Amino acid sequence: QARLVESGGGLVQAGGSLRLSCAAQGFTLDDYDIGWFRHVPNKPREAVSCNSKNGENTYYADSVKGRFSISRDKSKNTVYLHLNNLRPEDTARYFCATVIYSGTLCVEYKYWGQGTQVTVSS
After folding, report:
1. Which of 37, 46, 83, 100 has its CA 20 to 30 A from that of 91?
2. Residue 77 and residue 91: Cα distance in Å, rounded?
3. Alpha carbons 68 and 39: distance in angstroms, whole number
């Protein structure tokens, strides 16, 4: 059964770091562009990072640029989002999805994870 499974979220103090993992099961992750998104209740979801499967393009939202980093591990069929210098406003549910990413647009496509909660205390 094909799915994406996120892990690594938790409670962290402002200034701390987390590494979120998105493991693909039942398909090869490197066959797809990948995006990380975050959601806060009553607000629209936000794309925080998108990465093309060929490595040509990577996107970071202005709010996280310089603090977050996306990476892939082909051998583990997993994509990571490294969260550094966390701020309370980063508190959200983070989820990964396969996307179609042109370098200008990042569009959700085919598979979604259930998300992992990140809570940053002041």
Report:
1. 100
2. 26
3. 16
